[in-house]
Design brief:
Structural class: alpha/beta
Order of helices and strands: HHHHHHHHHEEEHEHEHH
Number of domains: 3
Strand order of the largest sheet: 3-2-1-4-5
CATH superfamily of the largest domain: Ribonuclease H-like superfamily/Ribonuclease H
CATH topology of the largest domain: Nucleotidyltransferase, domain 5
CATH class of the largest domain: Alpha Beta
Distance between the termini: 71 Å
Radius of gyration: 32 Å
Strand content: 5-15%
Helix content: 40-55%
Shape: elongated
CATH architecture of the largest domain: 2-Layer Sandwich
């Protein structure tokens, strides 16, 4: 039977339907959430309108044979033949419990489940879950499930374990938290840290067309500048100083700026910082004495960068300015750095102000 005959048979079958069923089929052809079902409704609708099967296949980008299969099913079984028949295959394999177990396993290592590999593959996810649930799915189904659960393929974050005992570490972090919550309003609390700025750009991932690899021109001989920054824990104000070396002079310059320029009227300035050696040098101690105890240092436990909130500012600085940059000299690069930090200062203060208002 040729395409014209099937077209006429579909038209006759469509006429036999009630107005409500015909209206629903036309609506499903436009708005049905299931794409495959929506495609089959479109095929029937176009056949009813008199569009030839070869044209339908071309316009809808489907197989010519699919048009005939849909037409045959519709003529023989009516609209009930259009939904996906896989719904009758039995209970769904990928249940909510299966998905939750996958999320838990993805947060672990294959070594935790008796395998020597340190990283996961889709095939290994399928195998481990089959062992634990008795349910085996295909790797393509696993791929779709991982995408739906937003389990991504990414680079782990390298960390160094804190050498302190857990109780001591927790006690120190709690002391700093209480300081932020209960220090008098006139006293200032800032997070402090330093960052290196290299003229040789940090290389990072970027989007690029297939078959093309972007290039980043490096100046060859590297040059460095160093910043010391202070983020106000209450207001979000961001201040910084620049120096040519990452020595005690950089930190001392920042202490004087905090006390004399940034917060000249604050009776106390509490500085939350890491254990870098320039923060504890003899010259730093002499500077603290010269400031007459107006500046008090509060050291975080070793290797706890996530608890120093200015670290996020430096990560954003690298992502927005220094990574893959094309500045020709250090002056141009530092101009971009200062421009970004001024914008970040305004953004942070607005964010903290909105948070206090809420």
């Amino acid at each position: 039977m040729d395409g014209t005959s099937w077209m006429h048979r579909v038209q006759e079958a469509f006429k036999m339907l009630s107005p409500r069923v015909r209206r629903k089929l036309n609506e499903d052809a436009q708005r049905a959430p299931d794409g495959a079902y929506r495609m089959r409704c479109k095929i029937v609708r176009n056949l009813v309108r008199g569009v030839r099967p070869v044209v339908i296949a071309e316009v809808l980008a489907c197989a010519y044979s699919q048009v005939f299969r849909v037409a045959k099913r519709f003529v023989e079984e009516g609209p009930d033949s259009l939904p996906d028949r896989r719904a009758d295959n039995g209970d769904e394999k990928v249940t909510e419990g299966y998905a939750c177990l996958l999320l838990a396993i993805a947060a672990e290592s294959p070594r935790d489940h008796g395998y020597d590999r340190p990283t996961w593959t889709q095939e290994l996810f399928v195998k481990v879950l089959a062992e634990k649930t008795g349910i085996t799915i295909s790797t393509s189904t696993m791929c779709r499930l991982l995408r739906r659960l937003e389990v991504r393929l990414g680079a782990p974050k390298p960390i160094v374990g804190c050498p302190w005992r857990k109780q001591r570490r927790t006690r120190r972090l709690n002391d700093i938290r209480r300081l932020i919550e209960h220090a008098p309003a006139k006293e200032v609390i800032v997070y402090v840290d330093e960052v290196d700025i290299h003229l040789n750009p940090k290389i990072g991932v970027d989007w690029m067309p297939s078959g093309m690899q972007k290039t980043v021109l490096t100046p060859g001989q590297n040059k460095k500048r160093y910043l010391a920054g202070a983020l106000n824990a209450r207001t979000g104000r961001l201040t910084w100083v620049e120096y040519t070396s990452k020595a005690s002079d950089l930190f001392i310059k920042q202490l004087w700026q905090l006390a004399k320029c940034d917060y000249p009227h604050a009776p106390k300035i509490h500085v939350i910082l890491d254990n870098y050696r320039i923060h504890k040098s003899e010259r730093t101690k002499l500077t603290l004495l010269a400031l007459q105890d107006r500046v008090i240092l509060h050291f975080l436990p070793p290797y706890c960068p996530d608890h120093n909130k200015i670290e996020r500012v430096w990560r954003d600085l690298h992502a927005n300015v220094t990574r893959n940059h094309r500045c020709k000299d250090m002056n141009e690069l530092m101009s971009e750095v200062h421009k970004y930090l001024r914008h970040k200062d305004i953004e942070k203060q607005k964010k903290y102000s909105a948070r206090r208002a809420a």
